Amino acid sequence: MQPIHSSQQFDEATKDHGMVVFTTSWCPDCKRLDMYVDELVKDYPQFNWHIVDRDELPELSDAQEVRGIPSLLYYKDGVKQEHLHSANAKTEMQIRSFLDTIQA
Question: How far is the C-alpha of 36 from the C-alpha of 61, rounded, in Å?
Fold first, then answer.
């Protein structure tokens, strides 16, 4: 996954099937996601995977309506298409089910 450190990087990342994962370093659910995220990236190559630390870019997170972490957001042509909110992103199966529904 490519890290995003600025709004400009975010704009570029969301142009072409961008899957953006919003996390933080202190979040227990984010730590659990870390254990299998590499497999997700490998199993879903149709997405361009990126990661944002919510604490590093809080204004971007707010603008994208990220209220909890981890959250996965899918973008096409710079427009948010899908949003898996943190309450539904607790397990690998929940995330895979979400990814399986997206027509990239």
Answer: 23
